[in-house]
Design brief:
Layout lengths: L10 E4 L3 H11 L3 E8 L11 E8 L2 E7 L12 E5 L2 H12 L4 E2 L4 E3 L5 E6 H7 L4 H11 L7 H8 L2
Parallel strand pairs: 1-4, 5-8
Antiparallel strand pairs: 2-3, 3-4, 6-7, 7-8
Helix pairs in contact: 4-5
């Protein structure tokens, strides 16, 4: 098994795109680094030399990308949440992860071109959803539920009534 960088690491199962996905994620996130690449050998279910696993780290989280074949696909039951401190960050991650075939979903969720589900999570919207005034929190929630990409100003305006 290849050396990984943390005790617990998400393993992302791809058909044959593990290395491409790793390189894409390293291009999206500014704080990232590639790890080891392990390749299939003789007698493996894929051609010799095909990437088996690629390890990498983004924003301090270690990942394993696995080329396991077409048996399993990603779904929204698990997503990777990105803490966003501004609308600029929301826009950057949304637009970059949606590029080249991503699919939007509701409330800041999207699937990237590999099918991995991400959530852009603006800190200010989380604050509004936790507002001690239940009416403000409800208005913020109602506004957010109408959105694909989160617009912080719109959610804040709704919370303010």
């Amino acid at each position: 098994m290849p050396k990984i960088l943390s005790k617990i690491s998400p393993c992302l199962w791809f058909d044959r795109e593990a290395e491409q996905a790793m390189n894409f994620y390293l291009s999206v996130f500014k704080n990232g680094k590639a790890g080891e690449i392990l390749r299939y050998g003789e007698g493996a279910p894929m051609p010799v030399g095909t990437v088996l696993t690629a390890t990498f780290e983004i924003e301090g989280v270690s990942f394993i990308a696995l080329n396991g074949g077409p048996h399993f696909k990603f779904n929204e039951a698990i997503s990777l949440s990105i803490d966003c401190q501004s609308q600029d960050e929301v826009d950057y991650y949304w637009d970059t992860l949606m590029a080249d075939g991503g699919q939007p979903s509701q409330c800041g969720w999207l699937k990237d071109k590999f099918g991995v589900s991400w959530q852009t999570a603006p800190a200010r919207v989380i604050e509004l959803l936790q507002d001690p005034d239940p009416a403000r929190a409800q208005r913020a929630m109602a506004a957010m539920m109408t959105m694909n990409k989160i617009d912080i100003a719109t959610v804040e305006a709704a919370a303010n009534g």
